[in-house]
Amino acid sequence: MSKIDYVLASIKDRNPGEPEFHQAVLEVFESIEPILSKNEKYLEEKVFERMAEPERIITFRVCWTDDKNQIQVNRGYRVQMNGAMGPYKGGLRFHPSLNLSILKFLAFEQTFKNALTGLPLGAGKGGADFNPKHKSDREIMRFCQAWMLEAYRHIGHFTDIPAGDIGVGEKEIGYLFGAFKKIKNEFQGSITGKGPLWGGSFLRPEATGYGLVHFAEYMLAEVGKSLEDKVCLVSGSGNVSQFAIEKLLQDKAKVVAFSDSTGFIHDEEGVDEKKLAFLKELKNEKRESIAGYAEKFKSAKYYEGSEKTLWSIPADCAFPCATQNELDEKDVKDLSKNGAILIAEGANMPLTDAAIKAVQNSNIIYAPGKAANAGGVAISGLEMTQNRLGRYWSRTRMETELRVIMQGIHENCQDTMKKYSLDEQDYLNAANIAGFERVAKAMVAQGSW
Ligand code: NDP
Predict the structure, then answer these.
(1) Which CATH superfamily, name and number, covers 207-372?
(2) What is the 166 CA–ligand 1 centroid distance (Å)?
(3) Does any ligand 1 atom lie closer than 6 A to the CB of residue 263?
(4) What is the pLDDT of residues 369-428, one digit of tens each?
(5) Which CATH fold would you assign to the domain 56-184?
(6) Is the pTM of this model over 0.85?
(7) Where are the domains of the chain?
(8) Residue of 350, 295, 288, 280 lying closest to 321 (CA atoms)
(9) Whole-angstrom distance, CA of residue 332 vs CA of residue 109
(10) Is the pLDDT of residue 363 over 80?
């Protein structure tokens, strides 16, 4: 077994029963293998093994009382993955399926994503196996307070700064921040995604979805195309999806499909601003299934369950924005057969390993989430800066900052393709290599921690 194969095998052995984590590690490893084999220093310093081992994992019991006065028990987590570039930074996910494999894959991805932003951000990820669906606001508040009552010891503006992810939006961030402030008696930027009235940054809610579309604009411009009139599919209907759709509409693209965990909507006439406002109300205020969209708009059809997926709808561009492993090989083949030209990931790791191989054998240009969805953490990084300065920047300024950062990530990927003679438009390998190099250099410089 070569030294390099041995590294990968030992990472798998050390982390049994963690398929999502193995998948994320393997994807990055395949990209950087040529660099590792040429750079004995990285092998000697065991840089990759260190990157694949979280600096710290905190798991804890979260007990809270529901509206029926019953005690409920959940498990809370924070994975502090890599602090070489700055304080740990990454979102919190509240979802019943959450486990350490998912959190470690997310935290691992975050390491490279945060490095790509060019901001001083380390990487972390956390959350709980709590299901916020069908819970009252009071129950969500009590859960968030109970989560923070334990987690606050590990969190702080120079230590670890959580944000939102699946199941954690502005409401949850508010309760978590309020609890931290109460426990510590300090108003500090200990969490991002706050409301603009109480320490948040303009454009944070929009940043991941808008940044994703900016990245797609730069990818298409590279091959002489634009988003105008392109038929688009966007999975999910949460934070990232809603603002991806909004920006696509501003770019005059036509969004014909979106989804949630119950099924998907195919709206042949396309989503417009009015329909998007209805969708936002349905998901954010009423917290209901997207089925209600098809009841309201006659041009739309709702498909329940998973027999057919939205990726079989003919389209030019696909933006997976729901969750991990939501596209398999068949979905990519369907997109390719129907003439799709672009897949850009709003979600983290939405393509299975086989789906990525299928993309590589197609004419579709593809951007991995660690490059394309980095806009959210980038604006979070700038929320931290504003909190430390005690000054707030305008929405216009934030829009410019987001564009500049997404453009910078795109340029970094293009430069890396040239530097390492990668295939044209090989954003997957370029993003992995560019992120890895930054973190590796910082780790080597700081010694054997
Ligand atoms: P939200 O909770 O706001 O929305 C998630 C959406 O995905 C909902 O429509 C949800 O449906 C759907 N969904 C969740 N799980 C599944 C599933 N197993 N099958 C089908 N649909 C599912 O989360 P976000 O929009 O914040 O996050 C979406 C993705 O983007 C995640 O992968 C996240 O890690 C990633 N991301 C988020 C960032 C952010 O700033 N928020 C930053 C970078 C990446 P339902 O409404 O029925 O639950």
Answers:
(1) NAD(P)-binding Rossmann-like Domain (3.40.50.720)
(2) 5
(3) no
(4) 999 999 999 999 999 999 999 999 999 999 999 999 999 999 999 999 999 999 999 999
(5) Rossmann fold (3.40.50)
(6) yes
(7) 3-51, 56-184, 207-372
(8) 350
(9) 22
(10) yes
